[in-house]
Sequence to fold (380 residues):
Amino acid sequence: MDLDALRGRIDGIDDQLLALFKERMGLSGEVAHYKKENNLPVLNTGRERAILNRMAELSGEELERYTRVLFSTLFDLSRAHQAQQIGGRSPIVEAIEAARAENLQQFPSKAVVACQGVEGAYSQLACDKLFRSANIMYFRTFDGVFSAVQQGLCQYGILPIENSSAGSVTKVYDLMKQYKFYIARSLRLRIDHCLLAKPGVALEDVTEIVSHEQALSQCAQFIKDHPKLKITVCENTAAAAQAVAQSSRRDIAAISSKNCAGLYGLSALSHNVQDSDNNYTRFICISKNFELYPGADKISLMLSTEHSPGALYRLITKFAALQLNLSKLESRPIPGTDFEFMFYFDIDAWVGDPQVVKLLCELESTLDQFVFLGNYSEVI
Fold:
């Protein structure tokens, strides 16, 4: 047979497969109605495993693994269809409808905002870019920022989420599991670190450098070039500059922003000590309630999948099927579990797309843990 003839036969088989698929999904819908009437769960792990093993055995050794992929995908589609048929009021839909009904047109220029650190912190610089006039409340820890927003003490909170050189701020990701919040906006801030010391101090006089662990990581080459310097980690770059200014010592310096030099009466011994000239930190602005503004084009999600081979792959294919770009995927271990992970997704999408909302509702109803973190735009 020539190629055209072979392709013709494949087209015929595809038509048969589609007809059988539609019939199978129809029966799956009937099963959903039965489960709804009898208050049964969508997922039946035992039955799926039995079918998968039977089909894999029938397919033969050569096609076994392909068969497992095929039927695992069918099960995912069937579960999603059943979950949609069973329905119920989705919290995500309620949050989206409430936000759209509020009809917010412009991100606020004034607000009470929680930031980690002290005056001069990079979080404060990010806050000043997002708000024209912010009443900033400083907290010692990231935990304090989350708590202030959740309790309603502050309308917004500013948190660093990742750096282009040093990677993700893992402490923030770990805290995200503990609090209820939404992302209202994000910002990419250029980070230029300076080595600050008291006036009159020379670089050769310095024996110790203090700064936040992320800043130290971003300045790894500078630290490597000065191996005799003691490195001390503190909670914030601005707090490091403040500590140097208040110390009686003259052999100590801080890696901090140039802005902190003027704030705390320090001099810059070295400028741009970060490894990369293109050093950016991404900050998120969180709120207690879901706020939706024009131009929102990024959706953030937090979820976990079943701990089984191919589970994450099958999840990602759901986004690919809608041609949604996955711009961020971060994983963090779930405490108290045996190598299970919480995943953080950023996708380029908006909740005005009905297909996106259907996907979010499907994930909400079929995954053990699923949190919609918001739909927002990023300021560059």
Observations:
- The longest helix spans residues 3-37.
- DSSP finds 13 helices and 16 strands in the chain.
- The chain has four domains: 1-87, 107-191+279-287, 193-270, 295-380.
- The mean pLDDT is 91.
